[in-house]
Amino acid sequence: MATGLSLRGITKRFGSFTAVDQVDLDVRPGEIHCLLGENGAGKSTLMNVLYGLLPLDGGEIVIDGTPRTFGNPRDAMAAGIGMVHQHFMLVNVFSVTENLMLGREGGPILDAAGAKRRVQELSERYGMPVDPDALIEDLPVGVQQRVEILKALANDARFLVFDEPTAVLTPQEIDDLMRVMQSLRDEGKGIVFITHKLREVRAIADRITVMRRGRIVGHAEPGSSEADLAELMVGRAVDLRVDKKPAQPTAPRLRVRDLRVANPAGGIVVDGIDFDVAGGEILCVAGVQGNGQSELADALLGNMVPLSGTIEMDGVDISRAKPRATIDAGMGFVPEDREVDGFVSNFTIAENLVLNRSNQPPFAHGMALDWGAINRNAEERKQEFDIRAQSVGDHISSLSGGNKQKVILARELSRPLSVLVASQPTRGVDVGAIEFLHKRIVEERDQGTAVLLVSTELEEVEALADRVLVMYRGKVVGIVGSDTPRDVMGLMMAGVPYDEAVAVAQDAPKEETHG
Ligand SMILES: Nc1ncnc2c1ncn2[C@@H]1O[C@H](COP(=O)(O)OP(=O)(O)OP(=O)(O)O)[C@@H](O)[C@H]1O
After folding, report:
1. Which residue in 6, 294, 352, 498 could disulfide with 62, CB within 3.0 to 4.6 Å?
2. Following DSSP, what letter does each residue of 152-207 receive, concatenated?
3. Taking the model in full, what pTM does it have?
4. Where does the UniProt annotation place the signal sequence (predicted)?
5. Does the CB atom of residue 401 touch ligand 1 within 6 A?
6. ipTM tops 0.90
């Protein structure tokens, strides 16, 4: 009897739209099977069918030669399938152990001591250190993800689906996760790994399957180059590096002086920061996540009120302005967490595309909305940004993750701006869309906008930055050129000042780092 998981002829429709069209996919025990594909290709839908989250319209799921039907995730878990979601399904105010007790497919575990031992045993076995008594809300994202993995393992999952698990992780956390995935594979688990980061695919894949528009379009050899993988994904050659001329900076358009911001618990998270961003330049804020970058962006928009210091946009003090006022004054804003701050999920795509201008002509005249203008704008943006949607009248919640991100960028880049503040602008978007979005951000710069870009992706920083501001524990470690070597940048991200970092890097043996 064949062991393993087979998806045969899986079809999934939403209304008249076929999101997954007769897909065959095998997952063998002891392999990492990478599933690639452009935004909206149907990867998550296929996996949601496998995990019992969506009913299938055709085809079958076969485990160890036996066809199975899953009405819900509990059925899938009972059959040995686990899924690690990008937005974790954990209860924040519960401890690690309590979350594991809740997550049992056979009903809750009632023996707390036994559950705690199980956490310790699994976390040791797979090299995933976790404090069983810690509350989820106190844990960094990477550790919360470990808890999700432990939950699946506690259910004796034999097949594990990781749907874009690295999108929200720091480079160090990504390295840790890769090691965990490899040890799970070596223990005989079958893994499906969805990612848009081709370097990760090259590092870890045993097999690679590529989807496009709901179908499997091919398989690639594990050693394939990033360029070949990109071409197979989007169906054309992709420029993995944006071609950009040197910046022509004008006068500063964003001026920040001695800015201090506290988090809700009162801790100082931005600690006396000074910088300028000129019109016509891209200043990238680099740093390990959690060093004050998010709060800096929120304070610039007006989402957080600074304790002290000033923020000026085109000479006007906006330090205490509300978001609506900074947006109206010409700030474009791409939030770090699109699901929380990026859009209104029960609004349509068309409505979300004008959220920042819904009270202004041509979209509103007085109190009346002009639906003709709103819909025309939506059709144009859909075309221009290649937003894969059936209709601009659909709720934005029906879009795939990468297409939601494209809606936000399309909205923010479609009006004259003084300043663009963009956090992780290409999170979750495919390589083809990254090529386009990077070009658009550079065009925005070349039109004279001051661009502040927060990114934890060193490759993105290298591709886009004219200057790089490195943040560590709420302070500026230094502002350096974008040609600064990666190892020097890495040391600065750990708080080492530039001169010292250069001296240390010169003495250290060279090593490849994850971007
Ligand atoms: N609940 C839904 N209702 C209508 N359409 C949907 C629904 N869920 C997904 N779709 C559509 O199905 C298609 C496939 O989406 P899916 O999320 O599977 O793509 P994906 O390959 O995972 O993309 P990404 O890389 O952007 O995450 C998309 O066109 C999406 O708009």
Report:
1. 6
2. HHHTT-SEEEEESTTTT--HHHHHHHHHHHHHHHHTT-EEEEE-S-HHHHHHH-SE
3. 0.89
4. none
5. yes
6. yes
